[in-house]
Prior knowledge:
The chain is built from 8 helices and 13 strands. It is of the alpha+beta class and 283 residues long. The chain has a single domain (1-109, 171-276), classed as outer membrane lipoprotein receptor (LolB), chain A (Clam), CATH 2.50.20. Strand 7 and strand 8 (195-203) form a beta hairpin. Mean pLDDT is 85; it is low at 1-43 and 45-54.
Amino acid sequence: MRFKTPTPVILLAMCLVQFSFGQKAAETKDTKASSTASSSPKPKETKEAKASSKDPLKNFTAEQVAESAIFIYGRGGGRIILNQIRKTAIERGKISYTNAEGRTDHATYQRWTQRAESLNKEKVRLDQEFPGARYSLVFNDEKIFGIADDAVFTPREDASKAFENLIVHGLEALLRYKENESKIDAAGKEKVLGVEYHMLDVTDKQSRKTRFYISAKSFRVMMLSYDKDGVKYRRKFYDYNYAQGTLFPFRSLLWAGEKIVEETEVGTITFGQKIDENMFSAG
Length: 283
């Protein structure tokens, strides 16, 4: 079953339904008070009020922006479609890392994800093959360990942190904010190169905050940012397309400060296939 991508006008109407119902309820409740005061002169409408009434987008709450994005990523079905289709994910592609000395290492990768009711209960395995090495990183039961030649090892701290950041500071932090019991706050709007963004701060139960830059036109996440150990990270998303009826970015770049430290190009992604539980085990 295919879903048509809604026009901005339709999307706006859907997202403001809750706002409209709230307005009507308030109006009904205050009918008597309004009727008794109807004979008094009406106050002059301010310039700010006029501007706000002409631009409904300015009235968007943080939740309405987040739910609009979820609606778009689920191609009109929102979290219901995302939960149905993305029970598991198998992703394959290429990745490159640039270290502090400027040396770039290239690898092919495979990533397996088994969806859980919240991100902290996810099971994720990332296999990477470099020209001279091959190893896996596994996230299971909120712990990270490595596997190389069937032997379990403790990864370096920087590798563990980068892997954890990929999970907790990724798109799923926004798309599943309710399941994660995260707090969301509107952080205003910003215009970059003529493109206007809603900015949302999503803070999980471990107080890890991610700022999302969501296009005011398409409601796609074009960038996210977070701070870690005094370093500001930014991840930008490119090449959006639909995979099994859900929206997915096939390329991303990660900055640490002003330097690109990671580039990922997804070759294929498949949702819903069965994954062997032993893949996430330490043996």
